[in-house]
Write a structure and sequence with these properties.
heterodimer; A: alpha/beta; 10-stranded mixed β-sheet; about 10% strand; B: mainly alpha; 12 helices
């Protein structure tokens, strides 16, 4: 550095030290300034647009010339379906200026607008950067969608929108009491996903009992194929097949108790039995080697390439791995196998529920427009556009006639038919994201399936987390109605 | 000639100072203010809650784990990275066998090594993290693939193993920061007068003695700045990026890799608890200031003039 300082200072003076450390410190914590940069503004101006005239064609009394702003999550489903629906709105209300934007960073983009009280009119609040629904509801940031549900549907004015939805969708949007805050637009089937072709090669059918499951895994292991794999990096994929398994063994009230954060909910014998069954897969070496280090794409890739038979997942996997899944794969979804004859629910019990949560903010300028856009999306034509472009069912009950169904979709529809009324809908992942993903998923199930915790230890740990979440006054708590 | 000098200076300084105050100092003050509220980050209404966030933080196991890992990174990374960088820089500039004509020279091929070491610095940290994530993949990754080819069995799970995950992250951080310091120290060594080395050579000093008695003392200023800079990288941006992209969860398995900036990010942008996040941010600020102060204090020594 060749410093030739003329003044003889011995290193740093105390004042210099403080000054320099402060200057260094000041450039360090970008997160802090970043956080504060979305500083809370005023509560926004309540300049809502005037309502239009209510009529048979316009039951929500949309102001025909008011601008409408939509923000759509650009993820696994793409945004084509939303753009199609937007085009219908534009045709119906030609005077309205529509702003359409898509993003993967929902929270970064919209947080400042919620803080400033100027949010858009309709949001697809999805993806890794989903805004916490519990907080949004608790802080009264969302509009009640009841007017939309009670409006006549587009296809058949004698039915309300509520009548055209799949079972469970409306309840999912309720957090406490009657108001419906969220419209889940997609309909996801969760379960054990497999390739029928791979099973055929082993002369096997999908195992309806856990003993058959273990026998099939043993058979596959002899051929060098693992029985199971899962997203080891994100072990909160495991519940997609584990939660309905728990419900099947002990009845739906076990899951409800878990969702309600009741004390000792996880200590129910059904939870223990399900955990032990899954742990056995690890103990017997039926889980693909190295799974705990695989991310979701890695595990899905290994499974699509025939390295493992089964993977807990949701119906989006078909679209997500479209480029990897072989042509003759015959993608299918299975319900959890029966543990034994004393199971409370029949084979076929499955987890299916709404995904892709759409919300209309309470401070939206044109809330009626946002709801009208949803009403258009819930018509048969829009639902078909969604299903054919995403290979996923929508919340609209029907809309699968006359379009070519992909293998996975066909299997999902069949699984729903078989389940009948035995469809369960655990809510932890909507209500308590941190508890579900980080604590139950990574620290509980992840450790157990990697063999670093016994089922008993995992249950004790998870119960501790659940109790802590129940006690935490800084989060909003919800209960099954 | 003197009158108006101060007006002149102030006139020039006022714009940058104003920018600095508005965009750096003011957000800091705001953050500290928000750490005393229950602001969610998703709505403009919040209330003062006094020291609630701080008491919550002191009782929060995850916070202590994050703090532990952050401090470990801040202490360990500068040691390893700067140690390696000093060694490499010395070998590249001074450590070669003395060939005819040149008093000091680097090892053979040092020009190529310089470029090779600096290369990771050119890549974005996010890309580096993703590449290493693939390399560490236990089933299809390059590292286990090579080990398998060498005949090893029972290969480690790298990022999936709580005992190894943090060390994998340390390795990646060392890999992508060393190169910058190699170049920085090379530049510093280039400015050390050659006659010092000549004198050492005549006295028959070994390479190690030359390094410890001549090169290191004369480079001390550079090493100290590098130390602070590296520690700040480890506590802040680089540590966050690598953990967030590479680790299980992120932050796992079982909180074995979580660091303070990641916890700030998760509290603010996943859990809707911006007030609590700024509280952890304040803790991170204090840790960083303490780190800088300690390094400055420990690094005091005589200034050498040459």
């Amino acid at each position: 550095m060749g410093s030739t300082s003329a003044h003889n200072n011995e290193g740093l003076g105390r004042r210099d030290l403080i000054k320099r450390s402060a200057a260094l410190g000041v450039i360090t914590v970008p997160t802090m300034s970043f956080l504060a940069s979305c500083a809370s503004g005023d509560s926004g101006s309540d300049e809502k647009v005037e309502k239009g005239t209510k009529s048979a064609e316009n039951p929500l009394a949309v102001n025909e010339s008011a601008p409408l702003e939509l923000v759509i999550f650009d993820g696994g489903f793409g945004t084509k379906y939303a753009e199609d629906a937007k085009a219908v709105y534009a045709k119906t209300y030609p005077k309205s200026k529509i702003t359409f934007s898509k993003t993967q960073k929902i929270q970064s983009v919209l947080q400042p607008r919620f803080n400033g009280g100027t949010p858009p009119d309709l949001i697809d609040n999805s993806g890794a950067q989903q805004m916490d629904m519990g907080v949004l509801v608790g802080k009264k940031q969302l509009a009640d969608l009841t007017p939309l549900l009670d409006a006549p549907s587009i296809d058949d004015p004698s039915k309300t929108v509520r009548d055209t939805l799949r079972p469970g969708i409306v309840e999912m949007g309720q957090f406490d009491g009657d108001p419906v805050w969220i419209m889940y637009y997609a309909y996801t089937v969760y379960g054990v996903w497999y390739s029928q072709t791979a099973l055929d090669k082993l002369d096997a059918a999908y195992p309806e009992t856990w003993d058959d499951m273990l026998a099939l895994c043993a058979k596959a292991k002899k051929k060098g194929i693992a029985g199971w794999t899962y997203a080891g990096k994100y072990p909160y994929y495991l519940p997609f097949s584990l939660y309905p398994f728990i419900a099947k063994i002990g009845g739906v009230e076990v899951l409800d108790a878990i969702d309600n954060l009741e004390p000792k909910a996880w200590e129910h014998p059904a939870v223990k039995a399900a955990f032990e069954a899954y742990y056995e897969l690890y103990k017997k070496g039926y889980v693909l080697q190295g799974t705990p280090g695989l991310d979701h794409r890695g595990s899905q890739g290994a499974w699509a390439n025939g390295k493992a038979l089964f993977i807990p997942n949701g119906s989006w996997v078909e679209n997500e791995e479209a480029s990897v899944i072989p042509k003759d794969f015959k993608l299918s979804v299975g319900a959890p196998s029966s543990l034994d004859a004393s199971d409370k629910m029949p084979f076929g019990t499955i987890w299916a529920s709404g995904g892709e949560p759409f919300i209309v903010p309470a401070n939206a300028k044109n809330a009626e427009g946002g709801m009208e856009q949803l009403r258009i999306m819930l018509s048969e034509a829009s639902s078909k556009s969604f299903t054919s472009s995403t290979k996923s069912l929508s919340a609209y009950n029907g809309g699968t006639d006359g379009i070519e169904l992909s293998d996975g979709l066909k299997s999902g529809v069949a699984a729903l038919e078989k389940a009948g009324t035995n469809v369960v809908n655990p809510r932890l992942q909507d209500w308590y994201v941190k508890l579900q993903k980080e604590q139950i998923g990574v620290s509980g199930l992840g450790e157990m399936m990697a063999g670093r915790a016994t089922p008993a230890e995992a249950i004790k740990k998870i119960q501790g987390y659940a109790d802590a979440a129940a006690k935490d006054q800084s989060i909003k708590h919800f209960k099954h109605q | 000639m003197q009158h108006g000098k101060y007006r002149f200076i102030v006139g020039f300084l006022i714009a940058p100072m104003a920018l600095y105050v508005i965009f750096v100092i003011w957000p800091f003050i705001q953050s500290i203010y928000y750490s005393f509220t229950d602001w969610t980050g998703l709505s403009p209404d919040f209330e003062m809650v006094g020291f609630d966030n701080y008491t919550k933080m002191f009782k929060d196991d995850v916070f202590w784990k994050s703090l532990q890992h952050s401090v470990l990174l801040a202490i360990l990374l500068p040691l390893v990275t700067l140690g390696l960088a000093l060694f490499f820089a010395f070998m590249l500039n001074v450590g070669g066998r003395r060939r005819k004509g040149a008093i000091i020279s680097g090892v053979r091929g040092s020009g190529f090594y310089k470029i090779a070491y600096f290369f990771p610095q050119v890549l974005s940290i996010a890309i580096v993290a993703i590449l290493f994530q693939f390399a560490f993949d236990p089933a299809q990754g390059m590292i286990n693939g090579s080990l398998k080819a060498l005949g090893f069995h029972d290969l480690p799970n790298w990022l999936g193993d709580p005992k190894l995950a943090l060390w994998c992250i340390v390795a990646v951080l060392v890999w992508c920061t060393t190169g910058f310091f190699v170049v920085l120290f090379s530049a510093g060594m280039a400015s050390i007068p050659k006659d010092f080395y000549e004198a050492a050579l005549l006295d028959g000093a070994s390479r190690f003695t030359t390094f410890s008695r001549i090169t290191l003392p004369l480079l001390w200023d550079t090493v100290q700045s590098g130390w602070v800079y590296m520690g700040i990288l480890a506590l802040g941006a680089e540590g966050f990026a690598v953990v967030n992209i590479m680790s299980v969860g992120p932050g796992g398995p079982d909180y074995s890799t979580t660091v303070l900036p990641l916890y700030v990010y998760q509290a603010a942008f996943r859990d809707g608890q911006a007030g609590y996040a700024t509280t952890i941010g304040v803790a991170l600020l204090l840790v960083t200031l303490a780190f800088a102060a300690i390094v400055m204090k420990l690094g005091r020594r005589e200034r050498l003039e040459y």
